[in-house]
Amino acid sequence: MKVNGTPYRSVWVNPQDGWSVHIFDQTRLPWSLDILKLTNLADTAHAIRSMQVRGAPLIGAVAAYGLCLALRVDASTDAMERDAATLNATRPTAVNLRWALDRMLTQLRNTPAMERVAAAYAEAASICEEDVAQCAAIGRHGKALIEQAAASKPGTRVNVLTHCNAGWLATVDWGTALAPIYAAHDAGIDVHVWVDETRPRNQGAALTAWELGSHGVPHTVIADNAGGHLMQHGEVDLCIVGADRVTRTGDAANKIGTYLKALAARDNDIPFYVALPTSTIDWSVADGVTGIPIEERSQAEVTDITGRTASGEIVTVRVAASGSPAANPAFDVTPGRLVSGLITERGVCAASLAGLHGLYPEQA
Ligand code: MRU
User: Fold this and answer.
1) Which end of the chain has less neighbouring CB within 10 Å, N or C?
2) What is the pLDDT of residue 5?
3) What CA–CA distance (Å, rounded) separates 20 from 102?
4) Buried b / exposed e across 243-270, counting CB within 10 Å, b at 16+?
């Protein structure tokens, strides 16, 4: 996607040296667009854990490059397995991380140690290229749903509600939930987005709003608790969210608060879609509520908030009563029964075993 007219992806190999890896420091957005250079395993693990990079497909792609950086130091099999395990332990919920590392290891275990670095960079690049193509396809399939909504209310804008950030910053390019919105906007459909702020880390207010604004998509940031009210008053035509892990029965883990939006959407008869690439499906899990590990993050993310003052200083302040403890489950699971459809690069299917098997007959 373009920022101020310059096309970017969210991760790329530094063209100056051909091996270090560039990312945007997402903890600095929307205040500044800082490019970070990753040069080793520790940098990469820190970037994922601290959420300098985040979003399920992107952390898979960055972890793949992290393994490339580690292999430059030691390409032996023991080191490779150990370093992949270090990267895999950085965040537990998004299955794309495990998927990308498994894919790298499958390729590299059969490659002689001397050839591993080159093979690793080639595989990481393929993961990125495939992610871009898949997100573009998700955009095309999801756009049809927005078109349908537009056709049902000619002359008025289509209002889409989204949660967290499932845009190009969360993937390599385009995004998952935002890809259909970009496709619809670019096709001239009058689409407006309700952006959940997404406490505690504000991925909606900080990242989604910045992305949509940079692309010229009309949007409005809302408090997380406003969605149900807007739905009751006819202000939401459909919801589209991303996912960190989708089970074979169609249960979807996504940023904390997604489940409540799905409940409100069901009560108001509003379609609720989950957009994801194949790398987000965990075929080994059936029940998402019991089978998907939910990351518990630091209390400080809830008790404190970071923002920019009028004078331009970026500060973190405490908002909770001093001394009160906080709990911070970072994701929740929306059961497939509350999901109107899964938007994948292969098309749209029911959020169920039968629906997924229809799109993925090789898994049936
Ligand atoms: O904790 P985060 O910011 O990594 O969580 C991200 C989300 O929940 C996204 O909605 C999800 O990864 C989909 S990304 C295309």
Assistant:
1) C
2) 86
3) 22
4) bbbbbbbbbbbbbbbbbbbbebbbebeb
CA angle 68, 72, 73 (to 5 degrees): 125
Would you call the peptide bond into 92 cis, given omega within 30 degrees of 0 as the criterion? no
Task: State the distance from the centre of ligand 1 to the C-alpha of 224, rounded, in angstroms.
Answer: 16
Active site residues: 244
Percent of the chain with pLDDT over 90: 98
What region does 112 belong to: left with phi over 0, alpha with psi -120 to 50, or beta?
A: beta
Q: Is the peptide bond before 30 cis (omega within 30 degrees of 0)?
A: yes
pTM: 0.98
35, amino acid identity: I
- What single string gives the DSSP state of each residue in 161-180? EE-S--SGGGSSSS-SSHHH
Residue among 161, 164, 281 to mutate when testing ligand 1 (max atoms within 8 A of CB): 164
Q: State which residues of the chain have pLDDT below 70.
A: none
